[in-house]
Amino acid sequence: MQATVKWVDGVMFIGESGSGHTVVMDGAPDHGGRNLGVRPMEMLLLGLGGCSSFDVIGTLKKSRQQVVDCRVELKAERADAVPAVFTHIHMHFVVTGVDLKEKQVQRAVELSAEKYCSASIMLGAAGVKMSHSHELQAFAAA
To answer: How many other C-beta atoms are found inside a 10 Å radius of the C-beta of residue 109?
Structure first.
């Protein structure tokens, strides 16, 4: 896996993934930025959410759950001192589907957290307290 981050000006950077996709990162105005892109630590948090969601959806599809929507709401706390690392991240999955089984969704979230999500496991190994929860928004088949 490869990526390139190129400085534009001030505290704005453009990141390009090895697959050719780009993203703008910028700082807040009080830190010399123009607020034209996500902050780098926000990007890290978004990456975590994407990595874990990828696992949860994949696991649910393998268990033949009819998922119609899935989102993960992430809340992170950071240290007050420099470096302002993440100290705690809570991931709350909201899964919507037809006749979803509670145990299947719970297991999918657990597998992501404990076995499959490289980002979550890496952050946990670095000392970030990771926690997870989930809720179902299921409806019966017509």
So the answer is: 24
